[in-house]
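User: Here's a protein and a ligand (flavin mononucleotide). What would the complex look like?
Assistant: Let me lay out the input and then the predicted complex.
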Amino acid sequence: MAVNLEIKLGPLELAHPIINASGTFDVLAADKALEEDLFVSFPFAAYIPKTVTLQPRAGNPPPRLQETAAGLLNSIGLANHGIEAFITEDLHRLESLPVPVIASIAGEETEDYGRCAAMLDSREEVAAIELNVSCPNVELDGRALGLDPEKTRQATVLARQATSKFLIVKLTPNVTDIIEVAAAAVDGGADCVSLINTVHGMALDRYSLKPVLGHVTGGLSGPAIKPVALRAVFLVSRELDVPVIGMGGVTTAQDALEFMAAGATAVAVGTASFRDPLAAAMAPELGRLINEHGIGSASELIGVAH
Ligand SMILES: Cc1cc2nc3c(=O)[nH]c(=O)nc-3n(C[C@H](O)[C@H](O)[C@H](O)COP(=O)(O)O)c2cc1C
């Protein structure tokens, strides 16, 4: 029995549920390294480039990456060349991808979310916009905006006023009550929520016993955070009436199956792509697993764990 893997994410009709997690797969760089291999069977049903901000950001001091027992710590600090360069240099190249492009934006001030969304609103290459609310916020003394439900709501309202595009808000798990923040995003006009960004963490150098990362602390990703992510997806999708994009440690088709059963409509692969750039090519295996469970389509799998 052939399983129908197509899913609808608002107005986006995706060939299957597997997409990439922002900041973990640079398709423009991978294009050079993998050449045709990447495009013969592009692994993602939609592509999300790295988050861009209103002004370019240099990011945090090195070292910025440290592998841990079951995951990766990063403190990139949203290094990016700014939304203007994204629009003039990257967008036309991304347009040639065989899948819809979801732009990811962040702001150091709440107002930046509206400004960035307005700059993308008229761009036909952009199918949807994801708000990354994990950027350090100047109004919150450098804490991530997404730690504060009211600020999350305000940023979403400003973006909502600036664009009619499908609006996704990507939440940080580093809060006591993720349902409260998700509800604030939806109240502000989010069409979808994305869960989860990285989990606060740090590592010490075994010899010097000093922090390894130049920024001292960072964000943990990879298999270690899968249970944290699965819980967030389960709770939020059960509570709120918007589609959820699930991510956090997805490495195999079995992981993707579980995220969808927990309530995700689409599933993003992040850290796994660093180990194997084609790790995300898991849609056929996901189809096989869905079939094995006697479920007829990917959309029927969504939330069966509830
Ligand atoms: C090196 C690195 C860079 C990241 N950059 C971004 C980013 O620019 N924007 C964003 O929303 N998330 C960013 N993330 C978070 C991922 O998109 C994802 O939410 C997180 O890593 C959990 O998924 P994973 O365990 O599959 O990696 C980054 C993660 C890593 C490891």
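Summary: The domain at 7-59+78-203+219-301 is CATH 3.20.20.70 (TIM Barrel).
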